[in-house]
Specification:
single chain; about 30 residues; mainly alpha
Length: about 30
């Protein structure tokens, strides 16, 4: 259970980062 929580807490910021990068990319283009 602890491992799953750690994975989720690590993956969520990464997904948000990717979404932020995509939004910035689309805004620039």
């Amino acid at each position: 259970m602890k491992r799953s929580i750690l994975v989720v807490s690590i993956e969520i910021p990464v997904i948000e980062d990717l979404n932020g990068s995509y939004n910035t990319h689309y805004t620039l283009s």
